[in-house]
Amino acid sequence: MTVSSAMYASSTALNAFGIGTQVTAHNLANVLTDGFKAGRTTYQDLPRYSGTAAQTQVGLGPGGPLLPWEGLPRDPSTPAWVPKGFVEGSNTNVATEMVNLIVTERGYQANAKVIPTADHMLGTVINMKV
């Protein structure tokens, strides 16, 4: 792996972890939104040290808990299996999202550290040639 490919691989990983952070933030922002289904981000190494890609899947998993819904007419977007008088809650788990956020943060930090290290190595190589 060359210094420039290390910088490129780290920059693609930074982009992927940024996407992961956005998905986690979106899930946490909608934790109290009725009928919200959390999204997930998966990371994939690209071939030949060319970086990391993020794939986002939205609306995964089973529905949330049934919550009483009184006084308002039934929302037409409510699934048919939800009994009258109830609404499907969010399936976002705050503990899972916080763990995902920590993992994403550490991955971002590690890849952010590679860029100045590779830059320093490149500067050393250039100074050796002069």
Structure notes:
The protein contains two helices and four strands; from the N terminus they run H-E-E-E-E-H. The two termini are 23 Å apart. The protein has helices at residues 3-29, 94-129, and strands at 40-45, 52-57, 66-68, 86-88. With 130 residues, it is of the alpha+beta class. The longest helix is centred in the C-terminal third of the chain and has 36 residues, at 94-129. Helix 1 runs antiparallel to helix 2.
In short:
The protein has 130 residues and is α+β, with helices and mostly antiparallel strands. Helix content is 48%, strand content 14%.
Helix count equals 2
Q: Which overall shape is indicated by the principal axes computed on the Cα atoms? A: elongated
Note poorly predicted spans. none
Helix content: 40-55%
How many domains? 1
Rg for CA atoms? 22 Å
| Oligomeric form | single chain
Give the neighbour order of strands across the main sheet: 1-2
Order of helices and strands: HEEEEH
Mean pLDDT rating:
81
User: Span from first to last CA?
Assistant: 23 Å
The structure class reads alpha+beta
The tally of beta strands, per DSSP, is 4
Strand content: 5-15%
Described by strand count, sense and barrel closure, the largest sheet is: 2 strands, antiparallel
